[in-house]
Amino acid sequence: MENIKLLVLGDGGVGKSCLLISYTTNAFPSEYIPTVFDNYCANVTVDGKPYCLALWDTAGQEDYDRLRPLSYPGTDIFLLCYSIESRCSFENVEAKWILEIEHHCPNVPILLVACKSDLRSSSRREEMVSTEEGQELAKRLGMSFCETSSLTQTGLKECFDTAIKRASECSNSKKKAKSFGIGIGGFGFSKKKKPVPLPPVMPPAGKAPWVEIMTSTFSSDWTKALQNPVHSDVTFILEGNHKLDAHRLVLCAASKFFQKVFRFSQSEQQRNQLSEIEDESFSTQDLTSGAVEGIATVIEENDVKTHTTIQLCDGIRPKSFVRVLQFLYTGLPNLPEDVTGIEDEIHDVSRLAKMFGLGQLDTICDNCLKEMDFLNPSIGTFLNDETGKRMKDMFLNNPEYADVIFHIEGTKIYANKVVLGARCEVMSAMFGGSFVESQSTVSEVQLKEVTSECFMALMEYLYSDHAPIEDGDSVGIMVLADEYGQKRLVNLCELYITKEVDRSVTKQIEKSEIDVIGLLLTSQLYNAEQLSNWCLHFISSNYIAFEKRKEFSLLTGSNIEHVEEHRWPPLSYLEEVKQYEKEMEKMGEKCSVM
Questions:
Q1: Position 34 confidence tier, pLDDT thresholds 50, 70, 90
Q2: In this structure, is residue 121 part of a structural domain?
Q3: What is the DSSP string of 553-566?
Q4: CATH number assigned to the domain comprising residue 264
Q5: Residues 74, 105: contact at Cβ < 8 Å?
Q6: How distant, in Å, are the alpha carbons of 49, 493, 535, 536 from that of 547?
Q7: At what angle do helices 359-369 and 376-395 cross, to 10 degrees?
Q8: Residues 271, 339 within the same domain
Q9: Is residue 71 part of a domain?
């Protein structure tokens, strides 16, 4: 079996690691971790011939320009990569990488590889490096060209097959030349040379810790709000004089039927000539005369705040209506896994679903009866997402329905106690206990040392389970999330920040604008443990770059102990490099890594 060493080169973040991982695992990696140095091994067959393929990954950052060439000895072919979305990485092929390869390995073949071809379908297509530009550059430099997508695996096999065949051809040519004595001192004569010392093998840097995202509590939060309906403003009266309290905000966000019942008025942006007819509210006459199916009468009281009492028609079983409310609040009725013996109850819930225009609830019931209930959790997740989005669009920062006003930086942010209390324990205590804020109908709260942008992001998260982290101050949102006990939002910020660090250091770490040591210290102050661990690993794994930064002196105590203990490359390796350099100098040759 022929052994081939294939090494990938190119700017940071162009897709080198994804290229190798996608090729060896047939799966695109969901997380991007900047490569320091890594290698893989795969047994492959090309044109019926087996090969043992050693795949070497490298870091493209300038911080590793000195150490990277130590991976080059023994390379049979270089895959020189650029990203079609980064013209800078394309220009660096000729400006940097070709020069580096020709200096260290002048006779090794090169395959030019365009990465991320799937991005051509994006709206920024005109800004991308075209296929023709890649082909023209490869032709001018005298090398083969491939275009690939690690995400869709387009061109991946063809790329590596081409590389393997090209490497094998060149390897055989060298062996043939050697057998005739060509290049070794003339025909039939050979001059014995002192063997060139091999560079030390670089130890692996280790993988960055994963950032785990806490499971959403959106559904369970609203389950608790239904079970213990604080701030309720709706009471349903059912047969047997059973009463169930609820919240008009949730009912309107989850159901068009109840929007009509409560005569919810859409914003000007949402209103159009079709919706004015389709979504026309029920009249008072309809609601009080029994003209609306399922509703006997509706009574509104306006003492301190509006409270609506809805008398449901006889024939609506309390137990079935509880399932309807559970569906509206959480996306799923709380039905048992085994529905044997309660088919009649499910049929009754299905009847109410049709009565109140809840098509997805009808589908869920049908799935249960057909033993296809495994489909229901995904329906519930989808509905929670939709309800949260509508909740945000309809009620967040809407003065007409607000019972809380936050004053921040001279800006008013309008909110609802039911959402704040259900989704945030800190807010629940503020508006549900003996705090002054809980006493009035419309509470006004002055907040200092917080920006309106970050607070609005927190509000969006409480209403919709999503936050505009990408468009805002991710660190500020993380700090605020910790202050208000939103652990999952902290996790989302942690993950986004690590990605932002990855993106910002694709060219260089030492002079990058992003302050990773500052992020480490902030994460430790505000209980972002995963970000703290990630930053420690990142600093340790890029020690030679960080020790040159002015913030390095801020690392003290356990932080500096961890970084020194886990520094990469380790001191033992750097000592081996120095010894290698001395041996090369003794031989009268300039070290390839000086």
A1: low
A2: yes
A3: GG--HHHHHHHHHT
A4: 3.30.710.10
A5: no
A6: 48, 27, 14, 13
A7: 170
A8: yes
A9: yes
Q: What is the CATH number of the domain that holds 8?
A: 3.40.50.300
CB 229 within 8 A of CB 560: no
Does 537 fall in a domain? no
Last residue of a domain, one of 393, 421, 452: 393
337 and 433 belong to one structural domain: no
Q: Note the maximum CA span of the chain.
A: 112
User: What 3-state class would DSSP assign to 181?
Assistant: coil
**The tokens 């909740």 sit on which residue?**
391
- Domain count across the chain: 3
In tens, the pLDDT along 482-531 reads 999 999 999 999 999 998 998 888 777 877 888 999 999 999 999 999 99
User: Do 299 and 418 share a domain, yes or no?
Assistant: no
Q: Taking a C-beta distance cutoff of 8 angstroms, is the pair 324, 343 a contact?
A: no
Residues 6 or more apart whose CB falls under 8 angstroms from that of 414 comprise: 396, 397, 398, 399, 402, 404, 405, 406
Give the containing element (helix H, strand E) for 246.
strand 242-246
Residue numbers of the domain that contains 440:
396-464
Q: What is the dihedral of CA 588, 178, 101, 549, to 10 degrees?
A: -50
Residue 493 falls within a domain, yes or no? no
| Sheet containing strand 49-58, strands side by side | 37-46, 49-58, 2-10, 77-83, 110-115, 144-147
For residue 284, pLDDT over 60 is answered with: yes
Same structural domain for residues 344 and 441? Answer: no
Asked if 243 and 362 sit in the same domain, the reply is yes
Query: How would residue 279 be classed by pLDDT, with cut points 50, 70 and 90?
Result: low
Q: Are both 292 and 376 inside the same structural domain?
A: yes
Would the pLDDT of 1 be above 90? no
Among 447, 464, 481, which residue terminates a domain?
464
Where does 409-559 show beta strands of DSSP type E?
Answer: 411-415, 443-446
For β-strands 306-312 and 110-115, DSSP reports them as unpaired
Measure the CA–CA gap between 238 and 323, rounded to whole angstroms.
14
| Shared-domain flag, residues 372 and 405 | no
Q: Under 8 Å CB-to-CB from 345, ≥6 apart: which residues?
A: 319, 320, 323
Split at pLDDT 50, 70, 90, the class of 110 is very high
Could you report the per-residue pLDDT of 364-384, keeping only the tens digit for each?
A: 999 999 999 999 999 999 999
Query: How far apart, in Å, are the Cα atoms of 475 and each of 315, 419, 425, 530, 553?
Result: 54, 24, 22, 14, 22
Helix (H, G, I), strand (E, B) or coil at 163: helix
If one counts every other C-beta atom within 10 angstroms of the C-beta of residue 166, the result is 18
Residues 441 and 456 in one domain: yes
Task: Report residue 98 as tokens.
Answer: 């070709």
pLDDT bracket for residue 36 (50, 70, 90):
low
What is the side-by-side order of every strand in the sheet holding 234-238? 242-246, 234-238, 306-312, 295-302
* Contact assessment for residue 541 and residue 36, using Cβ atoms and an 8 Å cutoff: yes
CA-based torsion, 562, 565, 569, 571: positive or negative: positive
- Can you name the residues that pair with 61 across neighbouring β-strands? none
Give residue 340's region: left, alpha or beta (phi > 0; psi -120 to 50).
beta
